[in-house]
User: What shape does this take?
Amino acid sequence: MAPSLPEVVPADVVIVGGGVAGMMAALHAGRRRVVLLSDRPVGRSGSSFLAQGGIAVALGPGDSPERHALDTLEAADGLADPAVVHMVTSEGPRRIREILALGARFDRDDSGRLAFGREGAHSLRRVLHANGDATGAELSRTLAEAVARSENIRIVQGHRAEALLVADGRVAGVVTVTTDGSRRIFAASSVVLATGGLGHLFQRTTNPPEARGSGLAVAAWAGAELADLEMVQFHPTALADGSDPAPLLTEALRGEGAVLVDGEGRPVMAGVHPAGDLAPRDVVSRVLWRCLQEGRPVYLDARPIGERLQRRFPTVHELCRRRDLDAGTQPIPVAPAAHYHMGGIMVDEHGKSTIPGLWACGEVACTGLHGANRLASNSLLEALVYGARVGEDVAARLAAVPRPGEVRVAWRELVEGGIVVPGAPQGERDRVAEGVRGILWRGVGVERDAAGLRHALDSLEGLAGKESRVAEVSVAGWILRSALERRSSRGAHLRTDADPADDGLYRVVVRRGRVWRRRLAWMAARTAERAQTGR
Ligand code: SIN
Assistant: This one.
């Protein structure tokens, strides 16, 4: 007998995730009854709040959406969707103006104009920042205040999405669970997942503990397609002092003159790439990783920034000071750490997933903007642009709230399918999730090969058993199998045993446990072009 139905709360729209993308979607959902679910306080949730570097946007002198698009495409190593890239870089300035109108305070120069910083793989200064290096916090504050003012948005805190209800092939709501194990059902015909990334599934990460890929698991269990899960970006300069998560030393430090050096003070990026320390992130991470593998520690030397360091980078200065490190006078030890997920729930240009009634935005979504390697500071911009698009699309397509009978049947199916396991102890799930972190770090880190990936899959099976429905285990398995499927190197996915005959121009798709390649029309056109030009 299925356990009794939890309390059911009806809504027009349920948005899961209190970061920038989720709040933006809520604010654009018109006059609908929105429930905004968040496991942590809204505006202090996930990675948005921690973002240091900023928001890339084509608003500065000499810049244009076209130029921003070119840099994005170049960094993405051939896998970004050109139409999506142009849409986001063109729509970005409008969304930034909107945020300014809501009261966001970005840093300005002495004449009061917006100040733009430089980061890796940007061809000019394009990155807005706030309070020096606390951009995510300022953006989150601005949106959280707007959400609090909005009468149609109800915030429900302390709830984690455990599963999606599906009735007649469309999403009918969300089952949530609190830390004390109590469940609720939020019944709605429109559900938005803005649950963030999965960096915390890796042993070394800059991401907070809640970034464990839960949104990917619930979407996939409901039948949604996921794409390019193997594309995990490693940030080169996480502080290497054993902290978990590893504090970030923003790329903007290098934009202002900091240099990566070895123990003898020799620049490690010299002669590797024309952009030197500001090469794309995948390139820099790879160089640092290989130095570390050879036993050569790497440091970020921020002394060239001089006396501006403390004023321009107060967050970095303070996090170093708390560890008795002084970035103004000594090189700081750094190492790559899992930072951002380019893959995710496959969505269209409005953030719609492949199952009716489900949208996704922010890091949990795979929009096609980032390809194989995200351009620095494009993620907050994507969260603003797609958050707004999703909210507007949801508002335009509203369907009736699912009927009680549909909710009851959908709940029973979740329990019978073993997706919701009432009474399962949380401690066991945490133990398993902790084991996953070591397996992924060793098996699908900065460099991968088939033998390591297969070994990681075996270890994963040993950890949790074949039948396990622990979200972290499911997601880890799909990442490993996707990495096996992509046999060539692209961007952040570096196969040391790459197949030279494989051009890598495809998406790796996961659906209902099956993993396969899909070549989109624009990819096929690129392949034909490569064949003709030899490039
Ligand atoms: C950074 O500040 O280096 C991180 C920014 C980003 O991940 O885009």
The chain is about 35% helix and 20% strand. The first strand starts at residue 7 and ends at 10.
